[in-house]
Amino acid sequence: MANTQPRVNSLFNTYMAYFENTELANDLEKYILSLQSIGIDSNIATKIKHNLKESKFNFFKRDEEVIKKSINYFASCLKLLLNKLYKEDSAYRINFVDSWYHIGSKYSVHHVHKHPGCSWCGVFYVNPGENSSGNTVFLSPINSDFKDYGNKYLFDNEALAVQPKIGQLVMFPSYLQHFQSLYEGDETRIVIAFNCAVYRNS
Ligand SMILES: [Fe+2]
């Protein structure tokens, strides 16, 4: 029969998850500020980072208690997320393939990029500074080169700006492009980021 309502489904969902741990943020802030941070110590993609100090990408390889606590917490968050996604109650082997911190000063910015070599990524706001600026902006992975009313729904949802909050962890899939918008606060802005590969034991 003609003109019946179509069956419409939605494909290729993107999941993000949010957690909060202000106690860990406070511990990490003390620790990071006690370290000698000079410039872009990682030496990676230096041209897309401005007014930022960045550690090497093996930050979680350090021995301090606060690092162990961070690894355990971030791994437990990813486990919760995946358990929810897969509707299971499983443990995973989570490998933090990269981990680093950023210390941003006034007018810091980090241009559009994504994180290679992992499935899930996290950004943890240790101290967002004056958080009316310096948002993390995630871009839609759908890339259409034609724009009209027919696909307006795509452009209504083409970016998500996350306003940093102290102790907030945002976990996102590695295929999502994102950037840090211009930070205009005077206070130092500190974030940790990490990339994970995940395996499941049989
Ligand atoms: Fe990033």
Radius of gyration: 19 Å
| Total domains | 1
Mean pLDDT: 93
Helical proportion, percent range? 10-25%
Number of helices: 3
Main sheet overview? 9 strands, antiparallel
CATH architecture descriptor name:
Sandwich
Bound small-molecule species:
fe (ii) ion
Give me the count of strands.
Answer: 9
The CATH class name reads Mainly Beta
Catalogue the unreliable spans.
none
Sequence-ordered SSE layout with sheet pairings:
Elements lengths: L16 E4 L1 H13 L14 E6 L10 H22 L6 E21 L6 E8 L8 E4 L12 H4 L3 E4 L5 E6 L4 E3 L8 E11 L3
Antiparallel strand pairs: 1-7, 2-3, 3-8, 3-9, 4-7, 4-9, 5-6, 5-8
Helix pairs in contact: 1-2
The structure holds fe (ii) ion (FE2).
The site of fe (ii) ion (FE2) has 4 residues, from loops.
Put the structure in a nutshell:
19% of the residues lie in helices and 33% in strands. By secondary structure, the chain is an alpha+beta fold. The site of fe (ii) ion (FE2) has 4 residues, from loops.
Word description of this protein:
It is built from three helices and nine strands. It has 202 residues and is an alpha+beta fold. It has one domain (17-199): Jelly Rolls (Sandwich), CATH 2.60.120.620. The termini are far apart. The relative contact order is 0.25. Bound molecules: fe (ii) ion (FE2). Fe (ii) ion is lined by residues 113, 115, 178, 193.
